[in-house]
Design brief:
The chain is of the alpha+beta class. Helices cover 35% and strands 18% of the residues. Helix 3 packs antiparallel against helix 5 and helix 5 runs antiparallel to helix 10.
Length: 341
């Protein structure tokens, strides 16, 4: 297939964003999507990592129901082209088109279960995704229902505020393995997109599988509330937001902060609000609720189980954070008598 817009069946659909590869185009016919990576050395290298990881995942994921399936890849005029199965919109795009309204809790449960199954599967293969976020989780189908929205929010345009979209199917697949890495000792370079970045990454303490689990926790909160949990672009503010939502960072982690991060710590605690860059920054932190309150605002039933699960996924110390397999055994996923009929 081509990517020229002259054919009636194939077309360049959109820029998929400025992700790991810089600008990425997405093209499709009825069955396939193609990612075209710019012919620059570092992007080509990341693309070849992605091809390698996708092929390995495909060999082990026989049903093809966890991660996006690679169909083929080829090198065209120095551009790496990766051919995928065609899927629906990302969770982020779905939220955006839905005026950032939250998903019903039962849908969050089904998406969370599949996401953790994918992460457990990758971790079993000694792979760490390192860039889990709503943009990298795609609904398999783009079909949705419109249902009345009883929590009409002030930020919705009037004409659409009485209805919200619910995906017809909860089936998801994880994409974008260009930053995926094998587990090695002492990896300390910066990984993850800012909002989903774990505290050990910011503090320069080295990271491993648990950094994916932290990202999953942030994603589940976002699906429940409609908005990213930590909306920040700066390290100290980010750590202060964590403390506001989750309580104080452990002293042993602050003490071990590397030379880049030690400036955020003073006398064994976070240098906040003294070190804040602006009053707006302090206000942004102060307005955040505690995790329990945030979830209670948005979730009607099974809130207690979800809060308990999130507290396990968002533990500061990566050694104490739940593994993906432990999380899947949590009552939030297993307690059947709480299911809505």
């Amino acid at each position: 297939m081509g990517c020229s817009s002259s054919s009636s069946q194939d077309k360049i659909h959109s820029k998929m964003g400025e992700g790991t590869f810089g600008q990425v185009l997405e093209c499709w016919d009825r069955e396939r999507a193609v990612k075209i990576v710019r012919g620059i050395k570092k992007y080509r290298e990341a693309a070849m990592i992605e091809v390698d990881v996708l092929q390995q995942l495909g060999r082990h994921d026989k049903g093809g129901n966890r991660c996006v399936q690679i169909r083929n890849w080829f090198d065209y005029r120095n551009h790496i082209c990766i051919v995928f199965e065609k899927l629906g919109p990302s969770l982020y795009d779905f939220l955006r088109k839905n005026n950032y309204r939250s998903f019903p809790i039962d849908l969050v449960r089904e998406i969370g279960r599949q996401l953790l199954e994918c992460v457990a599967f990758m971790h079993d293969l000694h792979l760490i995704h390192t860039d889990l976020k709503p943009e990298n989780i795609l609904l398999v189908s783009s079909e949705y229902l419109k249902v009345p929205d009883y929590k009409v929010s002030a930020k919705s345009p009037k004409d659409s505020s009485y209805y919200k979209r619910i995906p017809k199917s909860s089936a998801i697949k994880v994409i974008d393995f260009g930053s995926t890495t094998y587990d090695r000792q002492d990896q300390s370079y910066i990984v993850s997109t800012r909002h989903y970045r774990a505290p050990e990454v910011i503090l320069g303490l080295g990271w491993s599988y648990p950094c994916d689990i932290w990202s999953v926790g942030c994603i589940l909160v976002e699906l429940c509330s409609g908005e990213a949990l930590f909306q920040t672009h700066e390290n100290l503010e980010h750590l202060a937001m964590m403390e506001k939502v989750l309580g104080p960072l452990p002293q042993h982690m602050l003490k071990k902060a590397d030379r880049h991060a030690e400036k955020y710590v003073r006398r064994g605690r976070l240098d906040w609000p003294e070190g804040a860059t602006s009053r707006d920054s302090i206000k942004a932190v102060l307005k955040l609720p505690r995790l329990q309150n945030l979830i209670m605002q948005h979730v009607d039933h099974s809130a207690g189980d979800l809060i308990h699960l999130l507290q396990g996924l968002l533990r500061y110390d990566p050694a104490e954070r739940l593994s993906a397999k432990e999380a899947l055994r949590h009552p939030f996923f297993t307690r059947d008598h709480l299911r809505r009929l």
